[in-house]
């Protein structure tokens, strides 16, 4: 049997005044998703335990059928995996944002979208200052960089009790109470403070300020962890899988569970992504794997920008260019199941991820239809198909 999963990231939302009291999912014209709802089952699942951060990392781990209470170790190791960085058992990966902090206020968690070239220059300076040792700065894309701690003697100062704050949660807020806390936090705080001194008079920042851009004032270290030991998906569920995504986090997760990644030209992780290309690549991949998973970030990005209309539009594009062709290709094969679900809600009101259940719909072989014919939040809330532990949805979806 062939399985397809389509993830419109963060698409679950609240009723909108501008939409006459309806949610973007209710208003969007999504005939393919509604066909799945009518032919199958609509329910809800909670992918983020209350005590864990409401991020795509935790939520997608659940969605892919892994208990985040057991497996979640932090964001940075997932991004390291996406970049093909092999971490030893004692190594730690730390997310290293370039940020703009002025008067103790987080002005920009992206350092005003600092370029990759500028980031590389700045990271060279802190690396030289640190010298040869356990610390290794790894330039990435723009403000999204990594710092590795590879202990020579097997000892790192961090533990699971080390606490950090994502800089995107601090936008326009004071950073004073949100420096790293717990084991090893003095090292992280010292590195952040040292970068402030080294970046202050750097030519990169002089040029940025001259061009009317915000300077990259310092590094912000967060999201640290060791590589999670994820049992391969095939071993757990007896099926192979492939992932289509433009987001490093999902690439990393796929790599760690033993799935192939399919890179689609024109996939941007933004609302201008090439939806049709993603749909085409997904359809092509069906014959080469048991589970094809297509993740689309555009719905989440629309929420981060507080743009209801863009969110509705993104849902319609996903339905038309991805869900529809994948559904038709599966139907033509005969024996299949299809699942559509976001990872977590991202309300446009708050412009950020939230805890709480998300609606899902499943149709295909062996799934007896319920009475629901639309796929949206109210239908899911009324359903008695509920997975309080979101990682239980995957075995339900795959069970023959
Ligand atoms: Zn997400």
Largest sheet: 8 strands, mixed
**How many H/I helices?**
15
Backbone CA Rg: 22 Å
Number of strands: 13
3D shape: globular
Side by side, the strands of the main sheet go 9-8-10-1-11-12-2-13
What share of the residues lie within helices? 25-40%
Task: Give the SSE order as H and E letters.
Answer: EHHEHHHEEHEEHHEHEHEHEHHEEHEH
Structural class: alpha/beta
Low-confidence parts: none
Summarize the structure.
The chain is α/β, with parallel strands linked by helices and 400 residues long. It has helices at residues 24-27, 31-39, 56-63, 68-71, 75-82, 116-130, 185-200, 203-210, 233-237, 248-256, 275-285, 298-304, 308-333, 377-382, 393-398, and strands spanning 2-8, 41-45, 92-102, 105-108, 135-141, 144-149, 218-225, 241-244, 260-262, 291-296, 336-340, 358-364, 386-387.
Descriptive account of the structure:
- The chain has about 400 residues and is an alpha/beta fold.
- About 35% of the residues lie in helices and about 20% in strands.
- It has 15 helices and 13 strands.
- The chain has an eight-stranded mixed beta sheet, with helices on both faces.
- A hairpin with a 2-residue loop joins strand 5 and strand 6.
- Helix 5 crosses helix 10, helix 11 packs parallel to helix 13 and helix 12 packs antiparallel against helix 13.
- The longest helix has 26 residues.
- The model has no long low-confidence stretch (mean pLDDT about 95).
- The structure holds zinc ion.
- The site of zinc ion has 7 residues, from helix 3.
Q: Strands, helices and their partners?
A:
Elements: E1 2-8, H1 24-27, H2 31-39, E2 41-45, H3 56-63, H4 68-71, H5 75-82, E3 92-102, E4 105-108, H6 116-130, E5 135-141, E6 144-149, H7 185-200, H8 203-210, E7 218-225, H9 233-237, E8 241-244, H10 248-256, E9 260-262, H11 275-285, E10 291-296, H12 298-304, H13 308-333, E11 336-340, E12 358-364, H14 377-382, E13 386-387, H15 393-398
Parallel strand pairs: 1-10, 1-11, 2-13, 8-9, 8-10
Antiparallel strand pairs: 2-12, 3-4, 3-6, 3-7, 5-6, 11-12
Bound molecules: zinc ion.
